[in-house]
## 1
Amino acid sequence: MAVLAACTVKNDAVLESLVVNSKGQPVVSLDSTKASPIAVPPASSTDPGSGTTNLSGLVSTDQLNTIKTFIVKVDLTASTATALKNDGGYVIVNGTVVVANIANGQYVAAQNLCTHQPRPNIIFNRTEFYCTDHGARFSTTGTGLNTLGSRGLTVYRTANDGKTLVVFA
Ligand code: FES
């Protein structure tokens, strides 16, 4: 029997451990001699998570609609998203996600929570994410660019159809 326990942080939505028996089957009890395997539905093409693996950048509306699990959606036609029309422009969505137009409609998104100290003060500064508290700097892929940013930044995936931008993990 093996016990796999998830390491969680404050914002994790799921706190759950997974117990498997000697055959690798998930069980509901730590006593694998008595527990029966949990029914695990087979993967299917209708799985909301499937089909999104390779989506990024500009995609069709139909492709965009296959992303069922997302972090935020941004209406690119809304007045609140006007800043995203300009290279280097950014918006903060729901206070939790920083979305920026790095150039020519190529979007990046990151968690608005600094890893130096857990403060929601990340902005996009021309070509990189930046924390206004003490100056941590992060690349568009989340790599720390100075000592304060050495823990990196959580960066999300994005896809859009020219009207709606979807930010997802
Ligand atoms: S809290 Fe972000 S740099 Fe210190």
## 2
Amino acid sequence: MDPLTSTADNPGTARTPGTADPAPGAAEVPSLQVSGLAYAYPDGHQALFGVDLTVPRGQRVALLGPNGAGKTTLVLHLNGILTPGAGSVTVAGLKAGRPHLAEIRRRVGIVFQDPDDQLFMPTVREDVAFGPAAAGLRGAELEARVHEALERVGMAEHADRAPHHLSFGQRRRVAVATVLAGRPEILVLDEPSSNLDPAARRELADLILSLELTVLMVTHDLPYALELCPRSVVLSDGVLVADGPTQELLSDVELMRAHRLELPFGFDPRSVTVPVA
Ligand SMILES: Nc1ncnc2c1ncn2[C@@H]1O[C@H](COP(=O)(O)OP(=O)(O)OP(=O)(O)O)[C@@H](O)[C@H]1O
Ligand SMILES: [Mg+2]
């Protein structure tokens, strides 16, 4: 049965894509709590050593660090793709793991580093419909959800195209739409500005700022972190080595040098007016 055309059997309240569902007691509970998270890959390579990170609801946090620091490994724990060797991940009060896996995956929307890792259907429309359809949405309600998510990323006119016929930047936007269509509690973006042209980079920033979602953004694009995330954390060799206002961290020359973080030529983070944490 095609979920886009079938009869609505799961009516719900229409909501804007990207608006998190309120969960009972959610106001007091952080969106994300990572405690003592350690992980070694099956080949024995230890990528994370006891990471602690709490992100209150609605906060936007940049996750910075050099290549190989463990950023993607941390992200893969947030919706249960990887299982902690030690420690725990809790999303809006729900511990990541077997009993809550489906609900955790609904609440944590991850936009992967490579959009081709999350686009696999014959059309853009079907890719964006996939998550909400799996959650039970049908018919007109599903169609509206898909359209809203594609509108949000400026891709509605491409709904019937094959994802593999789109440019990289367009595929990145569709990947964001697939995640927004699920109305996550927390939006996790792994290097969202990579390979985008300046206008697309700006449009994605505007979109992220408009969402009022909890955001964890992995990035090497330090001006982007400064613009979008009042708070940043630095992961280096699997250890969280800094946590504070983005402007302060980026202005800390010793910290930056010690962890292979480099600002673009001529960029002075202190000269930029930024939102407060
Ligand atoms: N499947 C794997 N098996 C073994 N080791 C891995 C695997 N995937 C990643 N690693 C190792 O784990 C460490 C952390 O990798 P990870 O991909 O999390 O880094 P990252 O901070 O996301 O880097 P980048 O900025 O390059 O994306 C690296 O040393 C990497 O070589
Ligand atoms: Mg990575």
